[in-house]
User: Which sequence fits this backbone?
């Protein structure tokens, strides 16, 4: 599903360069559930942004489902970002002037234009259900600044799941959630993975990483360790 | 130090009301180190915003150092927010068009105007040191969007500490930090508490709460439990 070779990312600020990724080699097959861990600033989000086709590497190759991503057209990339991949951002990235319901509906409107599934009137229903599944049925018309941190995070998760992507990239999806809600979210992810959806999840909490089947540890732009999680 | 009685907070959105706090009674003395826990949406940040004089209750009283906060002048409130209290926001609240160094310097510039300590040329030095203490010496000229999630969080923490406040209110200060950095941050908080600084810290991680001396548990706008942490 995912193949990266010699992935490098260098950010240049004025005359200062930061080498966020220093040569990542990694393969992730279909149905995998991978946890990505590592120190703050070790390159996890940079890696996720490249996997999610939201940013491109300075060097190296990224193959998604066998095809080189740098060969994809603008349309193909947009379709991947909105339908194939569900992305939960570390900072939520909700539109502040848009209600929870409309934020979650967005990926569906894109697929609508690209003549994928559901009719227009269904998209609001589908978005509503996604929010209900995350315990937000009585917050659907709230704006992000009218939601608690954990509620904003759950809206971001609902948005990532709503178009039933085949790959979920979640960057610290439980950072703002209490233990009980975190366990509920991880149960949702586990169920989706059992149904065949591939998941790559960044977390700094070992309890959360234990839900995955494999842990990849980043350190200073490199992969330090890559091992299977012993079955519980 | 802190005395709240019958604290209520109701948010009204259109014709819908949300009762975020339903009558909080709580006392916190000097030198205390209190962890606030509870489910997502249970009222923790709302409570912290009122304690931090960033918002006012719909009902009830809040006494800070014996005086009723609702009697404070605008200037007194501004001084409290910038010098007396160091606030770490759940969402960081960094100014996006401002470098890490300048973000951290802000509270000092306020005290400067109010003819408190340090001369102008020192404020940049003091801010620089605060960032160095949190391992960000090589990021001081970066803008927030050029920083990782955990680095942004550390800038927010540096800003809260820079004016040497007597009370620190930290809302999920380790949510985006790896375990090692979290432990370092908690060690800083413990050291400050031993020096007499009072700390109220919201967290959803029990490991983090264990650093505190007392745990107050919120549920649905109420205080469910309030107990001391057994000495380790
Ligand atoms: N500005 C607002 N307008 C309307 N409702 C609000 C507003 N701010 C918060 N709320 C609601 O008040 C309740 C309490 O919010 P609060 O942010 O205090 O929760 P919290 O305990 O900090 O949650 P979390 O752990 O998710 O950060 C939530 O249900 C939230 O939806
Ligand atoms: N736009 C940018 N410009 C300059 N440097 C950047 C930029 N984005 C990230 N960096 C730097 O690249 C490094 C890796 O950042 P990244 O966000 O990938 O780390 P991370 O592992 O996700 O960290 P965290 O756990 O704190 O979220 C960091 O040192 C950061 O300062
Ligand atoms: Mg990150
Ligand atoms: Mg909160």
Assistant:
């Amino acid at each position: 599903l995912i193949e990266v070779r010699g992935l490098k990312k260098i950010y240049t600020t004025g005359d200062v360069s930061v080498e966020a990724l220093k040569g990542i080699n990694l393969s992730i097959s279909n149905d995998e559930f991978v946890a990505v861990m590592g120190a703050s600033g070790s390159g996890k989000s940079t890696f996720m942004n490249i996997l999610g086709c939201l940013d491109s590497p300075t060097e190296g190759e990224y193959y998604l489902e066998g095809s080189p991503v740098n060969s994809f057209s603008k349309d193909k990339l947009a379709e991947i970002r909105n339908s194939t991949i569900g992305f939960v951002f570390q900072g939520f990235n909700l539109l502040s002037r848009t209600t929870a319901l409309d934020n979650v509906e967005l990926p569906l409107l894109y697929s609508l234009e690209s003549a994928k599934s559901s009719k227009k009137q269904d998209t609001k229903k589908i978005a509503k259900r996604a929010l209900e599944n995350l315990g937000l049925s009585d917050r659907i018309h709230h704006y992000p600044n009218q939601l608690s941190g954990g509620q904003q995070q759950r809206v971001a998760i609902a948005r990532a799941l709503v178009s039933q992507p085949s790959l979920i990239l979640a960057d610290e999806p439980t950072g703002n959630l209490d233990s009980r809600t975190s366990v509920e979210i991880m149960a949702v992810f586990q169920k989706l993975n059992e149904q065949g959806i591939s998941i790559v999840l960044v977390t700094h909490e070992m309890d959360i990483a234990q839900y995955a089947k494999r842990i990849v540890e980043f350190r200073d732009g490199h992969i330090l360790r890559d091992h299977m999680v012993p079955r519980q």
Q: What stands out?
A: Residues 179-194 of chain A form the longest helix (16 residues).
